[in-house]
Amino acid sequence: MAASKSLLDSLKKPEPTNFRMTDFRRELHLRHKREEHAKKEKLRALQESKYVSRYAITIDTSRARSNCDVLRMSIKELGFKEYPFGRKDNCCDVHWHACHFEENPEVFGGKVNKFPGMSEICSKMTLFRCLDIMRDLFPTDYDFYPRTWYLPAQFHEFSCEIRKMHERRVKPKPTFIIKPDTGAQGDGIYLLREPNEYSSLSGKCHVAQEYMSNVYLIDKFKFDFRIYVLLKSLEPLEFYICQEGLARFSTLPYENPTNKNIHESFMHLTNYSLNKRSSTFNRSDRDDEGSKRTLTSVLRRIAMNGHDSNKVWKSIERIVCKTIVAIVPEMKVEYQAAIPPGKTGPSCFQVLGFDILLLQNLKPILLEINASPSLSLDSEQEVSPGVFEYVLSPKDEEVKYPLIRDTLLHVVPIDKLKYFRKKKKQRLLKKLKASTSQKGKRPDPPVKQRTSIVIIKADESDEEKREVNVTQQMSEMHMDVDSHGDGTARDVNSDDERESNIKSDTELDEEVDNYFETKLRESCLKQLYPAIYDEECERYRILERVAGLFIFFLGIRGSLRIGPTGFRTFARKCRLNRKGMTNASVDIMYIDLQRRWDHMNPERTSGSGIKSIGKKGNGLCYQGFLDACIEIARRKFYAPTKIEMLENLVDHCELNLNLRDNDLANNLPRLHFRRLGLQYRQGSMYAMPRRVIDQMTEETTIEDLLKAHEKKLRQPSREDIEAFLRKSRRMIYQPSSGSRVISVTKSPDSE
C-alpha cells in the first residue's frame, strides 16, 4: 500500500515554486486580447473585401473612442461609409480621432479632425499670452478676459498686485483663481486670497486670474456657456460657430466668496465633470431645467427677464473671432513644423469648445478654450449608492448630433459630396414619382373571404353536389353585383384624381431642390469668418505677417525655435543695420529673450546643443521672436501707437526681403488696401513691387498707381535730380545757367 502511494506521488507534476494567483488572470486577459484582435482582423478583412465605389465618402472611426456614438448616428443618416477598424492604406476621406495629431503618424492624406500642437496652443499659459499680446496692441478691443499672471515666473508681480489691492482696501476683498496650465475637467483648480496660499511644490506651471464674483445668476445658480466652434481651415482662414450649445450650472446656490465658502467647488465652479458628482445635481430632461441646459433656453430666459439676448450672442461671436485670430499665428508655426512645405500630409480641421461666463451686466468673459471638448451622448446616473449607470442624455444628443453631422458635411470632399447629392436626388425623385403614381392608381377590388364552409357528405349524389355549387356561385355573383353596383361613377372620379395627382418632372425637380435647400438652411453651423466679420477682424491679423517672417528664417526644417544664426540672418537680410542695429546688439537681444522665455516655459524647455533646437530645447520660440520684433519697432520705427510701429517694421522687412507670393501668406497685401480704404483685387496688383504699394495714399487710385509704376521705369529727368539733391542735407545743389553739367559744391559749414 505504501509502495503504491509513493508511486502515485512520483507520477504527479511538481508544483511551481514561484506560483502566483495573478498568473491565471494575466493568461486569461492575454487570451481575451488575442481573440479580440483576431476577431477585428477577420472583420477588417471582410470589410476590405467588399466593393466600395470611388465616389463613396469614407470615414475612419478606428480611434474615435467616446465620439463613436454620435459619429455613427451622423454617418448613418448621411449615408457615408464607416471604417470602424480603419483601412490598410489609411486612405479615407475623413479621419476622426480622439487623440492628438502627433499620435497619428500613419495618416498621409484626407482630413484629420486635429490641428498640430493644438493642445499646447489651447493650454492656459499659451492662450492667455497670445491674448495679452493682442491686448497690448489693441487695448480696447481685447478686454473680454480677466487679468492673468503666469506662475511661478510672475509670482513676484502677482504678490505685489495683491499687496497694492490690500493697501487700497478694495471692496469686496479680491479673490483669485488658480488653474493648472494643462489641467482639464476642473482638476487642480482652487481659489485663494493671499499669495502665500499658492503652492509651487508640484513643479507645475499655473495661471492666476482675477475671480469674477459679480456674475449673472439664474435661479440663484452660477453658470457658463459651452460654445462649439468649427475651425475648418487655416489657409484660407475659415471658421463657423454652432448656434446651439450647452449651459452648465453649479449645484449649490451662489454666494460671493468669503473665507467660509471659498473652498466650495460645487458653488464656484461650473464644470460638468465636477458637478455631476454632487448629490444635488439635477438631471431634468426639460430644456429650461436642470444642472445642464441648452444654450437657446438660457438665452430665452435672459430675454424674458427684459434683456437683449441678441446683443449677448453678437458679443460672443466677436469674442470667438478675436480669439481665433489671436491664436492663428501660433497654429501656422505648429502646422509648418508638422507638415513642412513639400511634404505630403493631411489637411486639418477641429471642433473647439469655448467656455464663456456672463457678468451681471451681461458682458461675456472668456474663461478658456477646450481643444478636445466632450462629444459623448451619455451621462452618469447613480442607480444605487456608489453604483453609476450610463444613460443617453437627450440634451447632449440635441446639441452634439447636429454639430457633428453638419461638420462632416463641411469637411468631406466637394466633388464626392456633389456626386452623392446627385445620386440621393435621383433616389428621392424616383421615390416621389412612385408615391405620386400610387396615389393616382386605381386600387384593386377587395378579395372577400368566405364566411361559411360547405361540407358535402360522401353519400350525396352528383346532382345534389352540382346544385349546391351552382347555388353558392350565384349567391357570390349577387354579392359582387351588390357591392360594386355604383362602380362606374367611382371609376370616372378616380381617373380625374389620378390625372390631377400625377406631377410633372419639373415640379418634382423643384420639390427635390427645395428639400436640399431646406436641409442647408437648417444647418446649425453659422460662418463667422470670412462671411460676416471679415472687415472687422482684418486689422487684427498683423501678427500673421510676423509669423510668416519667423517661418521664413527658421534654420531647421520642421522646427519650432529659431537659432542664433537664423536671428542674425533675419537682422542682416532685413537690413536692420541701416537703422542702427549692430551685430552685438542683435546677439545681446537674442540671448536675453531666450533666457526670459526659457524661464517662462520651464516645462517645455529641455536639452542642449544644435540637435535640441526644435520643439523643445535651445532656441527662441515664436512669442520670443514677436517680443524681439516689438522691441526693435519701439527703438527704430517709432510711431504714436504700438500697432503702427509694428506695421512699419514688418513693411520694412518685407520690402527688403522682396518676398514673393509663395514665401508668405497669400493675404498679406490685403491689409494695405484695407488700411487705405481701397478694394483689394488679387491679380495684377499683387505682382507689383511692395515699394509701390507702400507709397499709396488715401487719394491714390488704380490709374495713378499704374502711372507711378511706369514713371519709376523711365530715366530720371533733370527736375527729379534737382528735387532729390535739394532734399539731401550733406550737399547743396547750385544749377549752372546755360549748361547741362551738374555742379556740386560743398557746404561752407562742413569745412
TrEMBL record:
<dbReference type="GO" id="GO:0036064">
    <property type="term" value="C:ciliary basal body"/>
</dbReference>
<feature type="region of interest" description="Disordered">
    <location>
        <begin position="430"/>
        <end position="451"/>
    </location>
</feature>
<keyword id="KW-0547">Nucleotide-binding</keyword>
<dbReference type="GO" id="GO:0015631">
    <property type="term" value="F:tubulin binding"/>
</dbReference>
<dbReference type="InterPro" id="IPR004344">
    <property type="entry name" value="TTL/TTLL_fam"/>
</dbReference>
<dbReference type="Pfam" id="PF03133">
    <property type="entry name" value="TTL"/>
</dbReference>
<protein>
    <submittedName>
        <fullName>Tubulin polyglutamylase TTLL11-like isoform X3</fullName>
    </submittedName>
</protein>
<feature type="compositionally biased region" description="Basic and acidic residues">
    <location>
        <begin position="477"/>
        <end position="504"/>
    </location>
</feature>
<dbReference type="GO" id="GO:0000226">
    <property type="term" value="P:microtubule cytoskeleton organization"/>
</dbReference>
<dbReference type="GO" id="GO:0070740">
    <property type="term" value="F:tubulin-glutamic acid ligase activity"/>
</dbReference>
<feature type="region of interest" description="Disordered">
    <location>
        <begin position="476"/>
        <end position="504"/>
    </location>
</feature>
<dbReference type="GO" id="GO:0005524">
    <property type="term" value="F:ATP binding"/>
</dbReference>
<keyword id="KW-0067">ATP-binding</keyword>
<keyword id="KW-0436">Ligase</keyword>
